[in-house]
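Hey team,

Filing this mostly as a record. A colleague (T.K.) asked me to run one chain through the structure pipeline before their review meeting, and I want the input and output archived in the tracker in case anyone asks later how it was produced. No errors, nothing strange. Just documentation.

Input sequence:
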Amino acid sequence: MADGSPESNLANADLRDQLKSMEAKLSRLRDIRQQHNDAGKRNADKRNSVQKEYNKLRDDIKTLLAENKVIRAKAKTHQARRDAIQEQIRELIGRARDSRGQKGKKSPIIELSELNSQIEKLERMLETTPMKIEKENKVVKLVKQHMNRRKELEPLVEEAMRIKIDLGNIEGSIKDLKAEADAEHAAMVATNKEGDELWSTIEPRFEERDFKKAEGDRHHEAFVECRKKADEAHQDVLSMLAQVNEIRDKLKQERLEAQSWIDEHNDSVRKELTTPDQDEDLAKSLTEALLAGSNVSIGGTERGTNANIRTQRENKTPQRRRGASRGNRGRSKPKSE
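Output structure:
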């Protein structure tokens, strides 16, 4: 218990000095933690800003790539149509030379073109040429056969590849097909050029996108590192705060013990100096006894019975008579007369 001795005062002074030093260190640790938190926030803000730029750039690239994909698909369509026309030209050239192509097989495109031409020719015959019922039925039957075969070939040939050929003028058809093939080739080249120009604007964006991503990753790593250092500083703060609180508790306990010792000492002195007439507990107990009708006797103090007796005696002391004295009674003249 603290008793105000020099040894106790010296120990308390050491504790207060130690507490002051540790509180200063605790304040520095809190400042360091705040500095790491602030640095982490700055890096997080930079990361978020770069991330927004990266996302916008990525979306722009995605849009441009989709546009470039459409252009390339269009170029491929022109290329496929050119190749189909060139194939028809080769087959027509072989037909003009009485050649049926490789292994005597026709391509679906040329066969479909021949069927379309034959169907148109037969339908025109039915509309413009008079004929007997038997022959008309044969022509109608042949038209139906060609139509059924056309239905079988159409799924094998895309709509863009269906080119009408005049089988009655093979040389003219070849010439027209060559011109059309050249047009498709020119369209393919122009479309590919458009795609190349668009790609020239897309390609640098990939480098910028990669740079933004690396920059965002760098700021994120810096943010994580700052958060790690802030957490370490926070743990140091908690450890130091526990020690500070421990010393504060010791000083508080010392103060409480010292105050308790002082209070006990004051109570002891106060009890030694208190007279019975100043005792509140005694006065209270006497009051309760009087109210209950008990006989109460008080003694031992000047303010008790003796004081009352002395007061009564003082009240019984006769007062001095007023008026003329007996020796002068009846005298009307002064004594000198």
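Quick notes for T.K.: The helical segments are 6-96, 108-128, 133-153, 170-273, 280-291, 305-316. The mean pLDDT is 76.
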